[in-house]
UniProtKB/TrEMBL annotation:
It holds the Pfam family TauE. This is Probable membrane transporter protein. It comes from Methylorubrum salsuginis. The chain crosses the membrane at residues 6-24, 36-58. Keywords: Cell membrane, Membrane, Transmembrane, Transmembrane helix. Belongs to the 4-toluene sulfonate uptake permease (TSUP) (TC 2.A.102) family.
């Protein structure tokens, strides 16, 4: 790959598609606990934001 950003974005897309594809059958089977899913989602978004801010502060 010519850029690590492309590799990171591609793998993030692959993980997202896989997660979304597996969510539907688990949801239909009643295995999804939405309260916990929301808590993990919020924590993940906040962690990603904090990580991106920290990464900008460090030289590549």
């Amino acid at each position: 790959m010519s850029s690590p950003h492309v590799a990171i974005g591609t793998s993030a897309l692959a993980v997202s598609v896989s997660a979304a594809g597996n969510l539907v059958p688990q949801w239909r089977a009643g295995n999804v606990k939405w309260r916990f899913a929301a808590a993990f989602s919020v924590a993940g978004v906040l962690g990603a934001l904090a990580g991106s801010v920290a990464a900008q502060a460090v030289d590549g």
